Amino acid sequence: MSGLQIAAAVIMIILSLAIIVIVLLQKDRQSNLSGTITGGDSSFFDKTKGKRKEAAMENITKILAGLFFLLAIAAGLMLIYG
After folding, report:
1. Theoretical Cys-Cys bridge with 5: which of 1, 14, 48, 54, CB 3.0 to 4.6 Å?
2. Can you tell me the distance from the alpha carbon of 70 to that of 75, in angstroms, rounded to the nearest whole number?
3. What is the pLDDT of residues 62-71, one digit of tens each?
């Protein structure tokens, strides 16, 4: 294995661990359904409380997954042509 292949493998491991951590930190979407169905007491601030944080975490997940996908393709091409 060349140095570039080793570096790609290390980066893929780091990206995969980062994806796992980010996904586990995200809140379940189904946990909010019970309050919606039962009509629980909530104010405007409760509804918009964590939306920016959740949106940022979703974007980070998308970016990390995209980087992982591209790196996996590049590593596969390195194995075939390198």
Report:
1. 1
2. 9
3. 999 999 999 9
The 8 Å CB, 24+ separation contacts for 54-62 are 54/26, 54/27, 57/22, 57/25, 57/26, 58/26, 60/22, 61/19, 61/22, 61/23, 61/26
Per residue in 42-60, pLDDT (tens digit) is 555 556 667 888 889 999 9
Which residue, chain included where needed, has tokens 């060349």? 2
Closest CA to 15 of 82, 72, 77, 73: 72
**Among 17, 18, 15, which residue's Cα sits nearest to residue 57?**
18
